[in-house]
Amino acid sequence: MRGLRVRRAGLDAEELALLADISAAVGDDRGLAEELTPVLRVSTREVERRIDDGKSLTRRMPQLLASMRTGELEAYGARRVLTVVDPLNDDAARQVDEVLAEKLVEAPETAWQPGNLAQRVRRLVEKVDPGGQTERARRARTERKLELTPGEHAMSSLEAHLPAEVAAACYSRVDGMARSLRRGRDGRTLEQLRADVTADLLLGRDPGVTPPEAAAMVYLHLPADAALSISDERCELDGYGPIPAPIAREIMTNARSTWRAVLCDPGTGEPVDLGRTRRRPSAVIRDLVRVRDRECVMPWCHRPARHCDHDHQHPWATPDTGTAGGAGGGSTSVANGGPRCRRHHRLKDQPGWNTHYNPTHGITRVTTPHGATYTSRREPVLTPSRTTPTREAPTGRRTARAGPARDTNQEQQNNDTPPF
């Protein structure tokens, strides 16, 4: 399969480079797309996308194109990167291309997974062109829309393009209501319940359950100086990634946001640990683990932590129920916990899989049944300081939970986001 991927990536690079050459020679991309539609046997819009991708790669991101030629990246992953850098001018895009190539030299293999790669590029774009981030975000938010796409077998898709925090809040609300119905022994699957709850809310029908207390809440991470408008340091939206500081402050100051303070160690950029000895994690432990890790700890999974299980890295056991000799097991604490989506929580105990997560350092190591090992490292919540401060000089960090107010018509209209 690796060999097939390398060959396919090389062919993708050859096709995109050739399309860029033909485009330069013809000078009429619209006519060229129409002419190539029956040749490539894809839609005209897809041909236009490939022509644009080829031109962007050859002119703006030659290092990324070289990675395709060596088999590291296929056309889909390249398109994810190009979408992120598309608003940049040519010079800024080439700068991102150079820095990305340098960083990928020593990066783990999982860094090439399209979702991971796009997330890495977002951070580079933020550093290369910090002044343009806010303008691009504001422009994108004005282009919000709802799309209906007919599908097969008498089905269609309804997709809402919304501001990231609104989309996350909508999904959290729908997911919370679906899970409440599921706990009530409803026979539908969670996917069916989410779809049905969404339809009921949009159509003004009673979905049969009220939203849980924490539904429609999302975490917003921002340093204290960014919250006070002293700086525009990196801010992140849980389950999405970096967002401009002015946008983060707008979310933070929304009258419907709920604040909670989380103390972080400025030397490491991580929240302070909270130890517990009981089996079921307290709400404080669950929240702090979700704030710290933000996503499922598997290297290629980006399911937000708020939709994951709280997993004990070292299995929990009391001295009475532990291993021989009463040694016990892992404690229920932030230092022994991590978020795993339900799929990867179950996979952890499957024969042949060896997964280890170090909550303290944020390192995940996964060995598959056939012996391949993948390693990834968690990005710190805050950018660590150059020197570790003394215990007498802690810094605070605000975490905003942003989401629509409950029981409003506007919120019901916004509850139409697709799952993550």
How does this structure look, described?
By secondary structure, this protein is α+β, with helices and mostly antiparallel strands. It folds into four domains: 2-128, no CATH class; 162-216 and 406-414; 218-269 and 393-402, no CATH class; 271-377, no CATH class. It is built from 15 helices and 13 strands. It has helices at residues 2-26, 29-40, 44-60, 62-69, 75-85, 90-105, 114-128, 130-142, 164-183, 190-202, 224-227, 245-252, 283-293, 342-347, 409-414; strands at 145-150, 156-161, 218-223, 235-237, 241-243, 258-265, 270-271, 309-312, 337-340, 354-358, 363-367, 373-377, 395-402. The strands form four sheets. The chain has a six-stranded antiparallel sheet. Helix 3 packs across helix 4 and helix 5 packs parallel to helix 7 (114-128). The protein is globular, with a radius of gyration of 23 Å.
Radius of gyration: 23 Å
Total strands: the figure is 13
Strands side by side in the biggest sheet? 5-4-3-13-6-7
The helix fraction, in percent, is: 40-55%
Largest β-sheet summary? 6 strands, antiparallel
**Beta-strand content bin:** 15-25%
End-to-end CA span: 27 Å
N-to-C series of helices and strands: HHHHHHHHEEHHEHEEHEEHEEHEEEEH
How would the global form be characterised? globular
Number of domains: 4
- Unreliable residue runs: 258-264, 272-280, 318-328, 386-420
Estimate the mean pLDDT confidence: 78
Structural class: alpha+beta
Please, how many helices?
15
